[in-house]
Amino acid sequence: MNKLIIIITTVALLSINIFAQSTDVTKEPGYVDFGDFTAFENSTNVTEVILDEDLLSVLATMSDESNPNIMEILNGIKLVKANVYEINDENKDQLKERINEIDSKLSNTKWKRIVKTKGEDEIANVYIKLNNDKKIIGLAVTNFEKGGEAAFVNIVGNIDLSTIGKLGKKFGIPNLEGVNEDNEKKE
Amino acid sequence: MLEKSSNKIDEKMLDKIIAVAYSDAGLYDRMVVWIKARRYPEIKKLLDEYKLTASAVHSLDEKTLSESMVSSVKKRTNGKTKSDFIGSIIYSFASKPLLSASTAGIIILAIVSVLLFSNPPLQQKYTKAEIELAQRQLGESLAIVNKVFQNTEIKIDIDVLAKHVSKPLNKGLIYLNDYLIGG
Amino acid sequence: MLQSSKFEYLIDQHKNKIFNYSLYMLRNHMDAEDITQEVMVRIWQNINKFNFLAARSWIMRTTHNLCIDYLRRNKSQYQRELSIDDNLSERIEDKGNAVMPDEALNQILLNKNISHAIENLPERLKSPFVLYELQGFKYKEISKILDVTLNTVKVNILRARKQLQKELKIYAREELK
């Protein structure tokens, strides 16, 4: 009987270990809950993105000649989520209000706003969350462009801003090198 | 109508008091209740009582669901078909632990053995179409972030990154990062 | 599968809300776990069907409906339903005339009676009250979850607050005896 109990206990402990799942990303300090978007579900164009650690790991393993070092770049990012809504007359005030609510919420916590633009036609806010070692562990972006879209993006994990730039370049976003030359000409 | 020495508080006033106590009254109602509470002790007493209750309600802790239960459900649905036999066993075991100790032990052993030797590689969890979609979505999400930095005239307070600079910038993230961190 | 990612994300987001709501409705830990598990399974079964953006409302609506079904099936255990007192305000006044030291009320409110009192609210008052006061849902969301009008939500939350206050005074009086 004692032997049986020992065997069962060992196997049970082993199985608990096996069944243990990855940590709850919503508890990460870099995670932002943007709230419920039910009110915007009827917008014409809606995009919702949720890429968790598992899926990002899969993307990271897909490296070829044109995409070197993806693993290094995606390493440490635990979640990428985005909600994007086409702005119309019905939802524009609510979307602006949501952006302001998020701004209040994050400004009153340990998030730091590093970008703020506010105009009649455009709002853009970027927030970062730092850990005790001054490393960025969360990035949040809220953006409103009248006549275009409203976007809410949250990236959770170990973030290097240059990584975000490189990743954007990697996945077919317009080459940023040209920007520097244009700006130098303007200046 | 409220009399100075009366205990009568009408229904409307009571509703206002409760709304103020639970912090979802409008500004006008808050002012009315505040003024009346200063004048009439009965109103103040009622307001204080409701505030105490509201405070206690809002302080109640949310109980956390046990991780083992969540894990069993996730495992059951993770890449397996809904009619999966092993999944059914896990679900039954997790939800109604009425089996005898020895039977439970044998089942645990069987489940662990199967899962240890049959867990598919992470990549096989996703189809090619799903991976392509994920890549595209990742790109779109990052494009939004990049666009904010690219298109807007930015005034950056670098204090948060332990450097004290404030300068208009209109650059992409790579250059921002190079400027800020020198990396 | 991509559905797995979405499923896990949804579960992590909502599991405690589902569990806590079930706990208040059913007043029993094991039953609440059963319901929570059932909700999770239903989320999985419908992961491709429902609008992801309306997930929160759908999930809580499912939780609420399962709790109601469970209560109806096990009616004898949950017989105690307090009736709504339409003359509540007058009765509160009357009770206010009795000796009710603030200290006693304070003491009551600081202990577990508040949870118990909420659990004892009639179901149609308890549901909107828990969703609003404890889980942070807005009136419009609650209206969708419970499939009632916005006005009904507001009225029932108000009534719940009054009923709760009445319950707590009864506890306080009994404690003083």
Task: Report on this structure.
The complex is a heterotrimer of chains A (187), B (183) and C (177). Chain A has 187 residues and is α+β, with helices and mostly antiparallel strands. Chain A has one domain (22-175). Chain A has helices at residues 2-19, 53-61, 70-74, 92-107, 161-170, 177-186, and strands spanning 46-52, 77-86, 111-118, 122-130, 136-145, 149-159. Chain B folds into three domains: 11-58, no CATH class; 67-118; 128-181, no CATH class. Helices cover 63% and strands 4% of the residues of chain B. Chain B has helices spanning 11-21, 27-39, 41-58, 67-77, 85-95, 101-118, 128-151, 173-181, and strands spanning 154-157, 166-169. Chain B has a two-stranded antiparallel ribbon with strand order 1-2. Residues 1-6, 79-99 and 157-183 of chain B have low confidence and may be disordered. With 177 residues, chain C is mostly helical. Chain C starts with a helix and ends with a helix. The chains are: A alpha+beta (187), B mainly alpha (183), C mainly alpha (177). Chains A and B meet through helix 1, strand 1, helix 2, strand 2 and strand 3 of A and helix 4, helix 6, helix 7, strand 1 and helix 8 of B.
Nutshell version of this structure?
By secondary structure, chain B is mainly α.
Shape estimate of chain B: flat
- Listing every helix as H and every strand as E from the N terminus to the C terminus, the arrangement of chain A reads HEHHEHEEEEHH
Global Rg of chain A: 21 Å
Domains of chain B (count): 3
How far is the first residue's CA from the last residue's CA of chain A? Answer: 84 Å
N→C terminal distance of chain B: 72 Å
| Average pLDDT score of chain B | 68
Which class of secondary structure composition applies to the elements of chain A?
Answer: alpha+beta
Shape label of chain A = globular
- Report the helical percentage of chain B: 55-70%
DSSP helix fraction of chain A: 25-40%
Q: Which regions of chain A have little confidence, pLDDT < 50, spanning 5+ residues? A: 17-21, 172-187
Multimeric state of these chains? Answer: heterotrimer
Task: Evaluate the radius of gyration of chain B.
Answer: 31 Å
Largest beta-sheet details of chain B: 2 strands, antiparallel
SS strand fraction of chain A:
25-35%
Name the chain pair whose interface involves the most residues.
A-B, 62 and 60 residues
Strand content of chain B: under 5%
